[in-house]
């Protein structure tokens, strides 16, 4: 009898403990994806299938630091609210499961399908520490829940230590699968083709070009619409290197990529410190704009961020298009419209003009979307928006109309002692011209993540910040001369985990 009472009690108690620590921790993002426990990095295998958006990601099943890389799995019906699923593809025999992509093999080119059910095929890098990286495949016949590794793996091995992160998609003109891979140390993207996902033929190389400061990782190639001309498309090549990302825009003819942007300038999908290894979704429904998700963290301090029992989060899904500005293609990124369903009540704040003065907003929150326009009203005006404010600690976004620099600074957020590297990486900036005399900002703040979209997606800055608990204020400041702040809209954002 005693036993019968004891067991359910223990069960209820452990459930209560699990509830109290899951997704309620101080720095826990509430409308960004993060794993319940342990370490995560790159998004992997982003693919849409049968009404579900799959998110696989680099995961350590054992600890809250990098290691034992495995593909973990979550799905969503709207790219916003996620459901955690069992770990998908596991490390085995000393071979870690590094980054890669996933396709739905609708025509069963691989032969893994059964009884008319097309397989999901994951293409990933098998990593043997300090020895080799090769390309491998695994398939699932139950919508990504359980996976079988192909018996004849690897499918591509050129005996290299740094050869990774396959991106695979179907080329409908050539009627073959295309795979991009990084020759990381050589700063080359390699292109391969296959009819069956098993035998691969080398097509071409792209690079070295642009930012070659660190090893190249995680290539991604996707066709994106031209703004305002949605039936004309361009090819966007994104990649990660040195804890930052860069992109090129041009044409892909099924064999090789041609860049149409100037190579003297470096174009980045994100100008902040915390957006990396972004890849785009495969096989989205036709009406859905191409969409990418990136990892919010930075290899320089990723293992040290003060979050427990998890580390790392995914960015909000970003729709992708391009626009020609001064002869070059500019990447335009916007949050997926589905995100708006998380807005609570709209709070409109009246326009305000300030001269060497500040205005504290009535709204206080660490979980919100804030939109506003900054109009500098004199020469040499310096204007700022501050979030996570408590007296003289805050995160600050500043526009200087003399230099035309938009910068964001986390040095005054009050914390950062967990890593010397983090403390050094505070201020990020980008030259941005006024449009109709103003800068438009759309700021998402989610407890420890700020994603800032500038001028309708022409530039994005992503930051992690770890403010103290009572840093909940929001204010605008004209630090020098006169500024008008207008079109101010504020929404608290709902929690996706409740
Ligand atoms: C990028 C990366 C990839 C690799 C994975 C390992 O962040 O270094 O190149 O596949 O992480 O976890």
Overall structural class, as computed from helix and strand content, comes to mainly beta
Counted beta strands: 34
How much of the sequence lies in strands comes to over 45%
- What portion of residues is helical? under 10%
Shape: globular
Strand and helix map with partners:
Blueprint: H1 2-21, E1 38-49, E2 52-59, E3 70-76, E4 82-89, E5 96-104, E6 120-128, E7 132-140, E8 148-149, E9 156-160, E10 163-171, E11 176-183, E12 188-194, E13 201-206, E14 216-226, E15 229-241, E16 244-252, E17 257-259, E18 276-280, E19 291-296, E20 310-311, E21 313-314, E22 318-325, E23 328-335, E24 343-349, E25 352-360, E26 367-376, E27 382-390, E28 393-400, E29 405-409, H2 420-424, E30 427-431, E31 439-446, E32 449-454, E33 459-464, E34 473-493
Parallel strand pairs: 1-20
Antiparallel strand pairs: 1-2, 2-3, 3-4, 5-6, 6-7, 7-8, 7-9, 10-11, 11-12, 12-13, 14-15, 15-16, 16-17, 18-19, 19-21, 19-22, 22-23, 24-34, 25-34, 26-31, 26-34, 27-28, 27-34, 28-29, 29-30, 31-32, 32-33
The structure holds beta-D-fructofuranose.
